Records
---
Amino acid sequence: MISSTNTAISIDMKHPNYPLLFDPIQVGKLILPNRIIMGSMHTGLEESKGGMAALARFYAERAAGGAALIVTGGIAPNREGALGPGGARMQRKRHAREHRLITEAVHNEGGRICMQILHGGRYSYHPFNVAPSAKKAPINRFKPRQLTDYGVRRTIRSFVHAAELAKSAGYDGVEIMGSEGYLINQFLVEETNTREDRWGGTFKKRMLFPVEIVRRIREACGPDFLIMYRLSMLDLVPKGSSWEEVVTLAKAVESAGADVLNTGIGWHEARIPTIATMVPRGHFSFVTKKLKGHVGIPLVATNRFNNPETCEMALKDGVSDLISMARPFLADPEIVVKSELNRAHEINTCIGCNQACLDHIFKRKVATCLVNPRASHEGKWPLDAKASTSLRVAVVGSGPAGLSASIEAARLGHDVQLFDEGREIGGQFNLAKKIPGKEEFYETLRYFENMLEKFNVKTHLNHPVIASEIGAHFDAIILASGVRPRGFHIPGLENQAEIVGYTDVLSAKVEVGRRVAIIGAGGIGFDVADFLSHQSEGHFSQTWGIDEELKSRGGLLDSVSGESPREIHLFQRSEGKVGGGLGKTTGWIHRKTLKDRGVETHSGVEYQSWSDGTLHFIEGGEEKSLEVDHVVVCAGQESRQELLAELNGLNVQVQVIGGAKDARGLDAQRAIREGLEAAYALSAWSVNPVS
Ligand code: FAD
Ligand code: NAP
Ligand code: SF4
């Protein structure tokens, strides 16, 4: 308990590391116990069968994990505004009734929740989309219909009605999505709003749409209902809002009745990374800080906050009053509680990869998390489950698959020993973490290392396993021996000093020359090209052309990309775009980075031979040759299964997971998920009633 005479000291003692993060704050009429908001994320559960119950579990777990306030994924106020056909809406009383499951579940955990109202405008991916002007978005094939004056007024009414329904569903408030290039943004910017009626023309007229929405929601929902407005503070598109317009709108929205301003960075069509892993932590907080003092209501900073230290530093630096994190709550629902109880070392950190969250959404799959496969599947692998029989389990291989299997099996109560022939845990992640901009991978290894210790997994490093040695001592064996790089064979190149594998390059066993051919343009080929073309730490804003002084419209400047210290050629045999198979939300970043550094790409290539330092190949039907110092092979991988036959001959349960099971289509997401599944498949388990 905090004593009234000694409040400051007691708070400091309870949260020695993050005093500002756990300093309560009043937002609107709500008193929030800490400064962390769980930001809006569309999970895909919104549109799935039984999705409301699943979402209720999903949000309740995050409320129990300490989020001071949760913002739901975007819910459209009407059919035109839905992001896709059949997209989630709050338009009818029955929608509100369905949402009650969510609000009750969150409130039962002592949490608070706002519903985000999002109208996609010209981003809505269906033929009924509407916008201030009939201008097609570069990222949508559907051209919008221009809203009539009546249509604009009707749309405002839809926002207000959605807020009223949200209130009736038990939400504590709403967030009005005014950023990322959605409908409200489209009204604000001249480029997308060429209207000549009262909703277009001067900035005062262009901003009437959001201001009216806020004013009328306040009027309809009363003073106790929280209104958060997500303000696009940096559009990152040509002819986007000027900083003066951002400040003018912030003030107008405050006067209209908003209680808190959240930060929006970049329209979806912007060609600058805003949340991917190469964005430095908290990088965009300079924008929110610049708005400080212009309004009286609290400000929320966002984008690439993924740990309590960065949040605490931002608060200390006076950047904002609150911090919003979204994906970090997928990676670890308990991020807040772990920070509060000085267990930050146990946080499973979001690595900003987008692979299992945003990339899933683009593939119309339910979002989950690469480092936490439980996300969106709450209850499927309960954290408090215990095995009915404790088995002696050997896990061979400490890559992501083996690490995941080890900690999950030990959590279930099995006696687990982990073996790896390497001198450190992590398998291929030890190479991945060396790629510039992928430093977050260190965090996953830190998490696993701490979990191995927490759950008493006995770890044997520098220990190549042979089947006979473990057979007699264990009840079950999980083979997670991973992959080995595929070889590359063309006449003349066998056993030459110039041919090297990506493992030797990334672990600095070879000094790579100035002219390089990379064979294979998958994820690893791109990473190796990035590694070899990376000159020195450029400043992120300069590299990508972000105006930190906010003097130019949209916050854009010319980019200054560093030149590669090497001449690099990236090859693939298949036809089509090089790097076309990379993730939807990050592939373009990798392709642009290499292009800006002058890396040359070759597709549809037939490799011929090697002679006297020259690679001979056919491209576009033409015979070509290229003199290089090194050929770096990134031609995919093969499973390491050499132990399998012998293990199958032993009288023990054997499961094969991750790359060892199948190298095709392998990524860390699959490896970690299979580790979790293998642990729960070891024996029967149940969630023990609390005695
Ligand atoms: P591995 O990571 O290969 O681990 C297998 C382990 O088993 C190794 O530590 C090995 O030493 C050990 N082992 C094998 N045989 C024995 C034995 N007999 N005795 C003892 N130990 C043994 N994936 C992504 O999803 N996203 C990315 O951004 C990404 N980037 C990458 C970047 C690079 C540069 C690389 C190389 C890989 C990247 N990957 C990425 C791929 C990802 O790392 C792999 O999919 C993942 O590591 C596979 O996990 P695994 O546990 O199955 O195997
Ligand atoms: P990959 O994506 O399968 O790419 C292998 C590359 O090698 C392809 O370009 C392939 O193209 C080429 N290739 C295949 N067989 C070949 C052969 N016999 N001779 C010459 N070339 C050959 O595999 P990877 O790059 O090794 O990556 C492994 C896994 O790690 C992938 O599943 C990937 O998802 C994951 N990863 C992800 C990221 C990320 O950023 N998300 C980054 C790194 C790795 P052609 O057949 O057309 O020549
Ligand atoms: Fe973060 Fe990657 Fe998980 Fe998405 S999938 S939440 S980016 S770690």
---
Amino acid sequence: MQLNTIIGDIAEQAVDAIIINLFENTNSPGGATAAIDQRMNGAISALLVGGDFKGKLRETSVLYPGETMPARRIIVVGLGPEEDFTIDRIRHATAAAAIRARELGARRIASILHGAGAGRIETYAAARAAAEGAGLGLYTFEKYKSEPGRQGVTSFTLVAWKEQNADALRAGAREGEIIANCTCHARDLVSEPPNICTPSFLAVHAEKLAYNHGMTARVLSDAKLRELKMGAFLSVGQGSAQQPQFIVLEHNAEMLKDSAPLVLIGKAITFDTGGYSIKSGEGMSDMKTDMAGGAAVLGALQAAALLRIPYPVVGLVPAAENMISGRANRPSDVVRASNGKTIEILNTDAEGRLILADALVYAGGYKPATVIDIATLTGAAVIALGEGGAAALFTDDEQLAERLSLASQSSGERIWRMPLFPEYAEWVRGSDVADLRNIPGKRYAGAGTSAAFLQEFTEGSQWAHLDIAPMASLPASKVVHPLGPAGATGFGVRLLAHMMLDGD
Ligand code: BES
Ligand code: MN
Ligand code: ZN
């Protein structure tokens, strides 16, 4: 889909659908909507008077302008009450209207910039959000469908009317388009079936990504991983016919000798059966999603390159498959991580923390400014926050918590901070035979204890852990209406991209 921006009159766009808006509880339209209402002899006012359209967020109504305008149809989208308006509502309104237009078969769409008028949002931020909303909302994954589904949208044009806003409009739209594309890149990887998206598939994919975006890629081989003594990571993959792959991506690699990088670590279990602590059929059903953290890191690194983030950013993606065989981990096995700590594996389904442990130690080798890991780590986070509720944030660093909270606000990706009580560390230290146990004795505070386990491997750098299990893949219409179809959300790419853009 081509994303365009122009300064002009929305009413003059000769496209398949033009998109205009209305706040909730307004009796009379304003701005471009008023102008169009006038040209159509009050057709929009009539919608309101008749009570056919309330202006609720994401509500849409379709009108046919006939001879009064060159466009084939007009889609009116609700923005919700004016006093509740936010940048995130621009994304949701743009996505809803674009999806409605596509359902009607529209291929060329023009939209006004929601929020730039009465919503009082800066053109730059409004354009960025609109571009994100269009790109995310119109996402599909139809690679394996023999019959192509609905026809795709070919062009989406953002129309602003003030001459002086042209640069802000263009720059904001460009940034939003990049962020949406990188999110859809992560969604594509998560949507891939697990027989295709194996650890080596991800490794090859990362190498191509690096080549296309001027980054450095390294994939650590089995021999190298043994040399680094990554016993925790290697143990998880040893039950699978697929070799584990440890992917290292560097943006601005040449700056690494002078400046401390931001290191992003993403869990990439390409399928999680649970191992011998096997999951139920239902529990296993969506476990191709267990590489969503890794996908988010690949998407975020692509965004770092395209957005020209001015400092070094490193992406670490430990990739493995958690399967069963004569070589797989047994409950009670003891492994040694690359920092020398021994771990008693009491549950082979708590595998994410094992692969992240060695990745966190590897991150320490960069003397990083900041380390953020992102992982579909626990069902307990889903229980605590709900499907589509928020990702759980764990950190002891107030400054990093604040930075992530700002990024959450500007990206619209919700995170919720949870505690790292010192007792949690005690619970994962209580092994009879090793330094640590991969699950505590009891099932309580499951998200917190997994975070406490990870903290054992952070060695003092500024660190945050994001448990994205509640957010990585959503059934249709959950707590937060996803921007796009059910399934992979690409959660984390927008959060991390906005964080990198908001400064260091
Ligand atoms: N990948 C799962 C966590 C998960 C569960 C993600 C549901 C998304 C939806 C993880 O590897 C896992 O199995 N965690 C266990 C940990 C337990 C054994 C301590 C869990 O949450 O049940
Ligand atoms: Mn598991
Ligand atoms: Zn898992």
---
Amino acid sequence: MKKVVAVLLALMMVAGMVYAEDLITVGYAQVGAESDWRMANTKSFQDTFTPENGYQLIFDDAQQKQENQIRAIRNFIQREVDYIVVAPVVETGWETVLQEAYDAGIPVILSDRMMDVSDELYVAWVGGNFVKEGETAGHWLEDYLEKQGRADEDINIVTLQGTIGASAQVGRTEGFGNILAQHDNWHMLAMQTGEFTQAKGQEVMESFLHSYPDIDVVVCENDNMAFGAIDAIKAAGRTCGPDGDIIIFSFDAVRAAFDAMIAGDLNAAFECNPLHGPRVAEIIQKLENGESVDKIQYVDETYFDTTMDLEAIKATRAY
Ligand code: GZL
């Protein structure tokens, strides 16, 4: 009996070794775990890159530090992974380490945010169109103010920016700025980073409320900073949302943003789809088959506000 068990164990080990060698290894350098959006983005990769789907995922959480991501990429190179996926915390400072991956013959795919590097150093990029998100929010505010009869009123605005230098921050600030520039009666009183986190968002909003007693609109470059801003506004004895005296909207449109809109605290949320896992897997499969892939691949995005049936929409959403 003991011999049978030993043989069975040996066969399982060999199978395991063969099985492991058949898997496509993917090194994934994730930004961190700073927001609900980021958690949904990570889950999308973890649900996609499984052994059952033919992958071994090596995941690294950089805690929003570029030096940790660079260290992770170098570790992936040493481990000779088949593909490297990076969600770069900021756009600059990647040329050297991506050249090392290129020299090692390991394809790099960018997810979520962009890098400012030579084109040949990455195979493809999948993410949101951040400038378009910002412009869509600007057009939504135009329409909202028009409907309120405030199109010609002086409108005082503050912005909670994301991590400075991150593509989402750069694009959303630029996009909303493109619409702001078309309205002489819109005044941007201040913009400051809340690092995409709820705690920092609340802290910065507290300082904005202290400095500017007449804020009409708060632009939050992600949902989590909006949640912090809402807490700060309420703590200051002010009100926000469709029935409040401060208009507040955010980017991402995660589940908790729907809850905030349904509760009447948030006016609108501009979607930034985090489900990049399947899109990146599609790119890898094409590369495995020797097919070409598009360099830039935007995910589909829309927006939601309190004029919509948010409970019904929320029930259909994956994140
Ligand atoms: C957007 C992504 C941003 C989200 C934030 O693609 O880079 O980072 O908007 C996240 O919630 O922290």
